[in-house]
Amino acid sequence: MKRKKEKGPQEKKLFSSKKLIIISILVAAIVLGFVLSSILLQTQEAEFSFEATIIDQLGEEFPNSEFNETGVVTNILESAGFNVSYHRSATVNVAFFKRLAKCNYGIIIMRAHSATREGETIVDFFTSEEFNLYKYISEQENGLLTRGYYSWKPEKFYFAITPKFIENLEGRFPRSIVIAMGCNSLNKTCIEMAEAFIKKGAKTYIGWTGLVQPSHTDNETIRLLRKFLVENKTLSEAVGTIKHDPFYGSTIEYYPLGAGNLTISSLVAEVKNSSTHQSAITFFKPMSAVCITSFILLKIGKKLRYDVG
Question: Closest by alpha carbon to 177, among 245, 128, 214, 225?
Fold first, then answer.
């Protein structure tokens, strides 16, 4: 009986080395696949979302039923095809704002107090959470949170979020339309907050150039939404219909100026096109991984046959 030739130490080592090379390359291919998938997913961050939210931080002190779950604003948004979530004043705390960029809101209506800092050209948004020096210590030290008070209630302080807070949020805004209804929310000397939202993915930021009365910002925000969502006016045209505050003289503006031609119909078309693009990517991602892996294995196979033969 013919005895099979035993492999020598050198041959065993060669086989072992090849096996290790194959495993290493396969691991590298898997890692590369994850990297490619991550890059492809990032390209989808810009898709506009038909989720909308009403953040009613003003609701406790200045209630207005037109901004609640069944009010006029909700009806306008739903008629335009949005799913609407309403957040009452008591829930608008620091923890709520920390989740804001993860919620995929296409329209964010911030019915919230905002104010410029004393001696500074920065606007901050109020939360409904009372200030506590020993809470959110890191955020306070790093300038993400500050404290604010209402002029009619100077003895009581609340946490206020800063532009830096928005910049450091986890997540991205899906080409969102942000409507900031508070005072000085888009003061010409205080655009840091607007820039922070744009840097995090928002398409446009809309706010007031100075002080504004609650009743006036309510009425004009409803007008703006009707013009933009119902009548399909451009953002520039819709903002152009807004009345100045009769007492303070402020008005609504938008940022950046390049967003003036934006319409709701263009956003709808963008979502449809993006959905088609997403389908192609969904197909491409697994196929690309298979192609890359197959190519690598083919090369390995040829190399092994060459070495052995």
Answer: 225
